[in-house]
């Protein structure tokens, strides 16, 4: 069952993803407590958790603000994703069967559907995707590292979705290419698709965002 802090984290995260809280905007605790109808103590804990996710920044004498978006961070996130997620596919491949691939395909259908344009839904399903991928591999630390990085990545995904009105950036392959590569048993090809997908988003961010 979700705690009050979980609920506040989700509400603030949603507002950041949807642009209701803009990059650089001060997060004044009294105003936020009134906005979300909560007391200061769980609100502070929620902001601390969002700081770990890279959505909130703290400054001495200024307090918390919505984290600014940076081109260099997007590139770093993509590089980390390429490394960690490629490792996950390599580890999972010996356990891969049609049932597992079908489960991943079902999640892919959700990610590629109109609902996937909602950043919070997208992040939740992508977290589940990698949990399913590694479900037979007993690698909880790797899964946690992937999911932590995905929380940072989703912020940029949400911004791209807003700018493009839901259109995939040019040269970004569908995630269905992953499924085809898995069925072919070709992790190398899957990694190429993954790197192209991440690179397309980074290129779009570098062309359209300001540091």
Automatic annotation (TrEMBL):
Keyword field: DNA-binding, Transcription, Transcription regulation
InterPro entries in UniProt: GntR_C, TF_FadR/GntR_C, Tscrpt_reg_HTH_GntR, WH-like_DNA-bd_sf, WH_DNA-bd_sf
Identification of the protein by name: HTH gntR-type domain-containing protein
Which Gene3D superfamilies has this protein been placed in?
Answer: GntR ligand-binding domain-like (1.20.120.530), Winged helix-like DNA-binding domain superfamily/Winged helix DNA-binding domain (1.10.10.10)
Q: Where is the HTH gntR-type domain?
A: 2-69
Q: Which domain of life is it from?
A: Bacteria
Q: What is the lineage of its organism?
A: Bacteria, Pseudomonadati, Pseudomonadota, Betaproteobacteria, Neisseriales
Could you tell me which SUPFAM superfamilies the record lists for this protein? GntR ligand-binding domain-like, Winged helix' DNA-binding domain
């Amino acid at each position: 069952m979700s705690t009050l802090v979980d609920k506040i984290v989700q509400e603030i995260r949603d507002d950041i993803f949807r642009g209701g809280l803009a990059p650089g905007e001060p997060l004044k605790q009294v105003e936020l407590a009134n906005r979300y109808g909560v007391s200061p103590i769980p609100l502070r804990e929620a902001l601390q958790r969002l700081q770990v996710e890279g959505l909130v920044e703290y400054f001495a004498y200024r307090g918390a603000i919505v984290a600014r978006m940076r081109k260099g961070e997007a590139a770093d996130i993509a590089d980390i994703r390429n490394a960690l997620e490629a490792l996950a596919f390599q580890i999972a491949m010996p356990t891969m069967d049609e049932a597992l691939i079908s489960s991943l395909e079902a999640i892919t259908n959700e990610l590629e559907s109109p609902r996937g344009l909602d950043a919070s839904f997208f992040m939740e399903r992508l977290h589940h995707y990698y949990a399913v991928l590694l479900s037979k591999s007993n690698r909880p630390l790797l899964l946690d590292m992937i999911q932590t990085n995905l929380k940072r990545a989703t912020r940029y995904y949400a911004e791209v979705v807003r700018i493009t009105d839901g259109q995939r950036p040019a040269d970004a392959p569908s995630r269905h290419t992953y499924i085809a590569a898995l069925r072919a048993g070709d992790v190398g090809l899957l990694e190429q698709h993954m790197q192209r997908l991440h690179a397309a988003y980074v290129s779009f961010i570098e062309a359209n965002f300001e540091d």
